[in-house]
């Protein structure tokens, strides 16, 4: 079952976060992920305000989790730590 990787991000160091983004894209693609949304216009109706929102589609929750824990993504994530405040969830797409 397909899954969505949904990140809400407040960037505190644009240069370091740019290094993260450059490495994260290929890591996500390697695990079957493709971006649906990256930044762009948004409206916050509830919850904490974050200026950047990213949604990627993966073949499954397991593929998204494997990507997150992969050496390639962890290398990218090293640049985001300390350069951003992030919330990240993975949710399966249930089709009714």
Quaternary class: single chain
End-to-end gap: 12 Å
CATH level 1 name: Alpha Beta
Structural class: alpha+beta
Q: How much beta, percentage-wise?
A: 25-35%
Largest sheet: 4 strands, antiparallel
Question: Architecture, according to CATH?
Answer: 2-Layer Sandwich
Organism: Puniceibacterium antarcticum
Protein name: DUF1330 domain-containing protein
InterPro entries: Dimeric_a/b-barrel, DUF1330
Question: Can you walk through the features of this model?
Answer:
The protein has three helices and four strands, in the order βαββααβ. A four-stranded antiparallel beta sheet has the order 2-3-1-4. By secondary structure, it is of the alpha+beta class. 38% of the residues lie in helices and 31% in strands. It has a single domain (3-92), classed as 2-Layer Sandwich (Alpha-Beta Plaits), CATH 3.30.70. The chain has helices at 14-30, 61-69, 71-80; strands at 3-11, 34-38, 52-58, 84-92. This is DUF1330 domain-containing protein. It comes from Puniceibacterium antarcticum. InterPro entries: Dimeric_a/b-barrel, DUF1330.
Keywords:
96 residues; alpha+beta; Alpha-Beta Plaits; 4-stranded antiparallel sheet; 3 helices; 4 strands; globular
Write the layout of secondary structure elements.
Blueprint: E1 3-11, H1 14-30, E2 34-38, E3 52-58, H2 61-69, H3 71-80, E4 84-92
Antiparallel strand pairs: 1-3, 1-4, 2-3
Helix pairs in contact: 1-3
